[in-house]
Every structure is written in C-alpha cells, then in structure tokens.
Amino acid sequence: MTVIATENLGKRYPKVTALDRLSVDIAPGVTGLVGANGAGKSTLIKILLGLSPATEGRARVLGLDVATEGAAIRERVGYMPEHDCLPPDVSATEFVVHMARMSGLPLSAARERTADTLRHVGLYEERYRPMGGYSTGMKQRVKLAQALVHDPRLVLLDEPTNGLDPVGRDEMLALIRRVHTDFGISVLVTSHLLGELERTCDHVVVIDGGRLLRSSATSDFTQATGSLAVEVTDTDAHPDGTAALGAALTAAGLAVRAAGGAGGAASAGGEAVTGGGHVLLVDLAGDETYDVVRDAVAGLGLGLVRMEQRRHRIAEVFRTGADSTGADSSVNHGSAQERGTTHAA
Amino acid sequence: MPPETTAASAQDVIHNIGYRPYTGPRLGRGYARRALWSQSLRGAYGLGRSAKSKVLPMTLLAVMCAPAAIIVAVAITTKMNDLPVEYTRYAILLQAVIGLYLASQAPQAVSRDLRFRTIPLYFSRPIERVDYVLAKYAALASALFLLTAAPLLILYVGALLAKLGFAAQTKAFAQGLVSVALLSLLFAGLGLVVAALTPRRGFGVAAVIAVLTISFGAVSTVQGIAYARDNTDVIGWLGLFSPITLVDGVQTAFLDATSSFPGGNGPGTGAGLVYLLVVLALIAGSYALLMRRYRKAGL
What is the CATH number of domain A4-221+316-339? Predict the structure, then answer.
C-alpha cells in the first residue's frame, strides 16, 4: 500500500523544467521530502493536490489519480503552506472552524473537531484570541491544525519548522511525529534541514533540480557503517596504547584501521574535536566484536575512553548523493525490501 | 527504536490514545460553497467579526432605511394618495450610500484572503476556484440586495398600511425589487473586480469610490451640457457609461420608472435593450475577470 505513487512525473514550463521524470513510491508513515530551494518540492505538492496538471507521467495519491480525481484527493488530504496564511483579526477557533467547513464538515462537527485538533496541537486558552497576537510557534500550530481538522489520511507539510527557534523546532517535530504515531495520519514533510528529518521521518526522498536523487528509509541513511570507534589511554607499559591495541586486535582476527586520514566518508561528523590519531576503527563482525575489544583492552591494562558505533549522517549521504552526477546509481542501496518501497530506475 | 515497530504499533493502538478519527459525513463542494456564501454575507454586515467592523455596514443600512421610514410615516399621517418616491427611484436617490457600502465591503470580502494569503488554504480543499468566486460574488450581491431591498420593503409595508392601492403598489414594489436585484449584481461585480486587483484594503476602498463617483460625475456633467444644448438624443446614450445610470436606463425602459436623466430623457425600449445588454455583459465580464484573477492566486 502506498500513499503517494508517481511515475515519470514531469512538469515543464516554457523555460524551466520543474520536475523531470520523477518516479517514487511513498509508503504510509512520515516521509521527508528534501531539496534545496527550487528543487521542485512545491511543484510536486501542487501536482499531488491536483491543482496543477503534470506535463507528463502520472501520479496517484491515496490510490486516486491526480489528473482526474483532484477533488476527492483534496477531501482526504491536508495541506500546510510554507508561508503565513492566517488573518490576524480572527481567533484560531473561528478560523479553523471555517476551514473545517470548507473541507465539507457540518458546523457542529467542525466545532467539535476544531476544539479537539487545537488541543492536540497544543493550543489552549489562547485559541479564543485574535491570531495577530500569536507567536510564530503558535501560528505554526494553527496552520498545522487547519491541515488536520478534517481528519485527512495524508498531510502535506511545507517547511513546518520555518522560522521557529530550536525549542519550537523540536516541539513541532515531535508533533509531526505524533501526527503519524498517535493520529494514524501519513505525513509528507518538506525541509531543507536534513538533521530534522533524520529524527522525524521513516523515509526520506531527496530531489534536486526536479530529479530524484535518492529515496530510502531513514535507517538506511543513518545505518551503522559496521565499524566501531575505540579510543584508549596510554599507560607506562604501553606508551602508545592505540598501536598496542591495534596489534592485539589484529592478532585476534579483526580488521583495524586508524580513524582520520584513510577513512574519508566515515570520518565526517564531529570527529575533528576528538583527535583522530587516537581512535581506532574496528570492523564490526557481530556482537562478539564488542567482547573481543573489551577483553583486548583489559588484557593490555589500558583505560577505555570510549567505544561507540559509527553511523552515517543524512547530511553525509546527501552530499555524496548530490555530488555524483549519475544520480540513478546512487539509489541502489538495498532498502526496497525494508518498507516495501521502490526506487527510480 | 526502528521506525517500523513504531509505525506498526501505532496502527494497533491508535484508538486508545486520545485522537478520535472523524467518521461523520463530508458534505463536499456544494456545502462548502454555501458555507462560504453565508460566512461572507454575514461578514458583509460585520456579523461574526469584531464589534468595530459592524459599525459602518450597520450605520449605512440604517441610513438607507431611515428616509423610507420617514416617507412612510409622513404618507400615513398626511393620508397621501401615493408615495412621494417611486420604488425604482429610491436606490438612485441614495446611490451615495450604496456606493459607500460597496466601497467598504467589497475589499473586505476579497482583499483579506489575498492579503493574508489564505487563498491556498481554500484551493487545497474540495472547494474550487469557481466555487470561491461564485460564493463571494453571490454574498456581496446578496448583501447589496438586502441593503437596497430593505427600504423598499418598508415603503411597501407603509403603503399598504396607508391603504394605498394594493395591486398598483405590489406591481411597483416588484418592479423595484427587480431593479435593485440588477443593481446589486452589477455593483457587486464591479466592486469585486476593482477590489480584487489589490490586496491592500485601503486602495480597494478608494478605487471603488473613484470608479463609481468619477463615472457618474462625468456622465451627469456631459448629460447636463447636452441638455443645455438641447441635444436630448445624446443624453439617453451617455447613460451607458456609468453603473448607476445604466440601471436607471434599464428601469426606465422596462420597469415603468421615471428617468432621473436631465429632462427625464431616458432611453426608449430600443436603446433600453442596449442598456440591458451592457448591464448583462458587465455582470458576465466581472465574473470572468474574477475567475481570471484567481487563476494565479492559488498556491
């Protein structure tokens, strides 16, 4: 079951190609849509809402064709725009009730759903005050509430964390996570901040220049690279503890290398501060590797400063993905089986 | 925690954690259009809005009705044989009030959604461009009809209380209603088109007033000159160039009204047909322009 499926979707304007044969399947859950400004995110959302016809290809949202069943899609989908869209002189309650009615809810149901939804997004007494006096965080909550008030099957959130401070950002991300886990509503959230999606999304789709760069589960982006970073102290018996441990581990049959110089991709992140020379990267063969390292360190009488799993960050994957011009080849990470998704051919 | 387990368990327990899915009816486009119409109509009189925004429309409604009430009171007490003002003439006499109302309410009907960029929220819902335009147009036309028909109703009730001829009064009242209905449609269309050009409310107010007063001022001045030169044929045709004289021309030709043109030189039936066609073309043109205006106002 997919909530969004596009097939060679294209949108060409006389001078610009906004979307270039985009094929992507998105499963239920929280999906991040990542791309720089002008990458085609808004164009894609417009097409998915059935508001702008694609010039080629097809797209289905919740199993409905965007070209012919736009109205049915818009009844089941919620949309939160990136820009400000709230009139300042009405209260959040009045506004959301009105928007619920525009989605076809009878007045009494609209009132009930509005009260529920505003409570769920965390707006209480202030919901009776005119929205002109709201903080950015509260405005974003109202914008989210109007997208959720008619209980859609899918919400499209365009840059929901824009303009929020770090705390507000975290709260909004937690709320977005809850939209799926607690409310059972699938989410497509756009952002250009990759770190956010790492925490919030099950799946990330990266587009650039209207083309698909990558589509895979977040766990793939941040999967363990299969190596363990180990840092030890030096002792009198072993003036160079790192080298001694390296020798001992190699003798125990593990592949060991020094962090820093050699391991280009693996050493991204916050490694600059830790002094790469004292960190050993040990290939993780299985859970027993931890025991072997522990025993080796104890046997040599060294102090174990840290031992941690090394992960890729989304930013890292995005950078390598964006660098490779043959984008199609970067898509072949084995994630299709995991969430039942397929990638661009 | 791997995302899969979260997603899977959420599917199982969703009903137990406070969020209630909506299972009731979804009434779709037609309902949304009616809801937008009634909300906009109420808004045109400040209902459902702040107390401050009720002041102007309610005052104008009172100003519109007061002369009718006075006329009725005088007619009843002095036992007149006929009302001193024709039903069809009333709106023409009070055109400044109607113009002021239109200038204040047309921008409020459309500029707010443009200015605060609420339009995308509408168009991401079942409601469509045609529904939005129709609802806004119908709401402002209804509001204008209320404004112009209410005093006619007062006159009519007063005339019946004064025991004036029932048949004649009813016919004249009906003709008056047709006339103000046409006026409402025409003025609402022109007002909305002008107001929708700018997201700034102040500009909208000024522009609507300018369109109404400048066109009427120019037409009546030139008509005055033509009358002074005994060029009576021209007077009838000049009325085509301002909204209120258009309505005057149509009702003179078809609704037994006495023309307010200089010397009462209104258009005859032939010229009246041209007037009617121009009015209908303006109404249709306003609608088409509004549809065009909102084509680009989406997401």
Answer: 3.40.50.300
